[in-house]
Amino acid sequence: MTPPHAHTPLTLWGWDEFFETGYQPWVGKRAEPGRIVAQHQNIYRVAAASGEYLAEVSGRLRHQASGRIDFPAVGDWVAIRPTTGDRATIQGLLPRKTLFARRMSGLEADQQVVAANIDTLFLATACDRDFNLRRLERYLLLTQEGGARPVVLLTKADLEENLAAVVASVHAIAPQVPVHPVSTLTLSGLEALDPYLGPGQTVAVLGSSGVGKSTLINALSGQAKMATQQIRAKDGKGRHTTTHKELLLLEAGGMLIDTPGMRELQLWEGRESLDALFPDVEGLLGSCRFSNCTHSNEPGCAIQAAIDAGELAAGRWNNYLKMKREIEEIEHMLSVPDKKGRPVRHRRG
Q1: Residue 13's Cα: distance from chain center in Å?
Q2: What number of CA atoms fall less than 13 Å from residue 97's CA on the CB side?
Q3: Backbone angles phi, psi at 218, to 5 degrees
Q4: What span, in angstroms and rounded, lies between the C-alpha atoms of 218 and 199?
Q5: What are 179's strand-pairing partners?
Q6: pLDDT in tens, 35-83
Q7: Which of 42, 59, 68, 140 has its CB surrounded by the most CB atoms within 10 Å?
Q8: What is the DSSP letter of 281?
Q9: Do domains 99-258 and 271-348 have the same CATH topology?
Q10: In the CATH scheme, what is the code of domain 10-93?
Q11: pLDDT at 185 over 90
């Protein structure tokens, strides 16, 4: 069997000087570089210059891992050692340019890597019941922490009569972030995404269940690679149909990563990014009459005055407080050493 994309130049998968430098420790060690293009539980599909392989993490790498962040994810560049046929072992993980990760659910202080080495992150939100500025603020914060460029996609734009107002509401919370209304039904707006999908560029698509991520990827790739499922018209809900992560190589030279729909997206640190995402709130916090203002019912509270005047949405203020508490909680958890006596903070990657 000849693997798909066999003998594909690594540059088509985004290989550049950054990864070339990161691979230097593996030169001459019976290994070759490759990129993780799909992940199915503990089995990875890796694209290398010599072909594609099904690979597992080596015992040494597994032993050295201190948390989930030290394991490969879709988009990662790795050092592999081919074994027999189309099989290989992953010997090492190369340094990452960018990282999109979320905190594991529950009480565990660990990260789950959603995708790695992304240039642009399409934040998809539908122009229907799914549209939620507060969720979008959370997506923007996580994107900013990971280093990728955020781009907001307003999917199902054909369903919205006052599209200009929806775009304006997004610009109000993120004035520097590009916003593109798109419709996979009418194919309108898709051409505006071409600049992000040039040769060697990696784009991931993130959004909650039912926003049309898989349909969007099918439209951009020109092939029905991802299973799609209609959402229920009654309540606007739908099960996500992407059950694994996969990196798709497009004819135009770019790459797309689809991610499973996420109902929960917990933060992992991000205090500086929180301040940058909420400059209006940060500016008001230092303007209260009393330095120890709790921003509840004190006289001269700049926060409450802005809310009363309609200059600050109460939902935006409450979302700021919620995410600030999450960040403080994870910072406290990270201050506690792990079972081996090492600080958990080093898992950030």
Answers
A1: 18
A2: 19
A3: -60, -40
A4: 18
A5: 152
A6: 999 998 789 999 999 999 999 999 999 998 887 889 999 999 999 999 9
A7: 140
A8: H
A9: no
A10: 2.40.50.140
A11: no
Residue 213 and residue 124 in contact, taking contact as beta carbons nearer than 8 Å: yes
Amino acid at 67: G
* Residue 103 CB burial class (10 angstroms; 0-12, 13-18, ≥19): buried
Question: Tokens representing 54?
Answer: 């099904």
115: part of which helix (H) or strand (E)? strand 111-116
> Where are the chain's structural domains?
10-93, 99-258, 271-348
CATH number, domain 271-348: 1.10.40.50
Contact 244, 40 (CB under 8 A): yes
pLDDT of residue 238 exceeding 50, the answer is no
Architecture per CATH, 99-258: 3-Layer(aba) Sandwich (3.40)
* Region of 172 on the Ramachandran plot (φ > 0 left; ψ -120 to 50 alpha; else beta): alpha
Tell me the two tokens of residue 348: 């950030």
β-strands 120-126, 149-155 pairing: parallel
pLDDT number for residue 54: 96
Closest CA to 83 of 129, 119, 32, 124: 32
